[in-house]
Amino acid sequence: MYSYNRVYNVVTAFFFTVSLVLHFVARNIEPNDLDCVKATSSWSPAFGAIEYQWETFQNGFSQKSIYRGEPTPELEMAWLDSLPILMLDIGSPIPIPKSKLSELQLSDEEYLEGHGDFEGSLYGNLEVFRNLGCLNLLRQHTYRDEFDYSFLPAFKGSEEMIMRRVDACVQRLREVLMCSGDATPYLIMLTPEKKTKESPDFNTLHYCRNYDRILDWAKENEIGRRGHFPDWYEFAIV
Asked: Which residues form the signal peptide (predicted)?
């Protein structure tokens, strides 16, 4: 009896010690970036392409950028290169497995299905490109009197239809910005050389997803670039 109690106490003490050690180890193990992304984002086929890096935004009032300023062929090409576009502003879809729809809280009853090599998938794309396409449309609409965009699908149709597209983009970008709710602080600089004496400093530090990696992933996985672009498919980025 004494021997049994002793063994029981030793075993109990052992497992208690192991549990205690595992508890403290688990508390000190931090999730990696991908774990955090999966925990705070809807499912995406591009999870594996997501990589983070620290960046300081360059938002000075007169800051030079290949994306800023009046339209030039070089500036238009910079915007074009920032999106996975095959022709004009037509984007090739990527395959989305049907099996993942439940993780997006969707059913497959209303969506375009893939064929051939992509049977079992649905056609779709990544929202970041839609959002950038919307931002590009707002830029183009601002400069439409200085540059001819009439050949683009977004500028086809009546003026009312064009404005509906612009308005839809304003709504989309509003939702995106309010959803992300960036709480990074910006400070007020002392600028005695200026008339206002103070100016906001918008060159703020952010932990950003590497956009080039996401863009490269999309290009590699586009149906059109793999020789399967359906000749009937015509879906503009905006």
From this structure: none
Average pLDDT over the chain, rounded to an integer: 85
Residue 161 and residue 141: Cα distance in Å, rounded?
Answer: 13
As a whole number, mean pLDDT of residues 131-146 equals 96
Tokens of 8: 């029981």
The enclosing H or E element of 178 equals: helix 159-180
| 3-state DSSP assignment of residue 208 | strand
Which tokens belong to 118?
A: 């992509």
Q: In whole angstroms, what is the distance from residue 30 CA to residue 17 CA?
A: 22
Integer-rounded Cα Rg, in Å, for the chain is: 26
In 3D space, the residue among 159, 154, 139 whose CA is nearest the CA of residue 234 turns out to be 154
- In one-letter notation, the amino acid at residue 180 is S
Tokens of 162: 């064009």
Query: Minimal CA–CA distance to 139: which of 155, 128, 125, 157?
Result: 155
- The per-residue pLDDT for range 5-24, each reduced to its tens digit, is 665 565 566 666 656 555 55
| Low-confidence winner among 54-58, 71-75, 234-238 (lowest mean pLDDT) | 234-238
pTM over 0.85: no
Please report the pLDDT score of residue 147 as a whole number. Answer: 96
| Phi (first) and psi of residue 5, to 5 degrees | -60, -35
CB of 208 closer than 8 Å to CB of 55: yes
Place of tokens 């779709």: 124
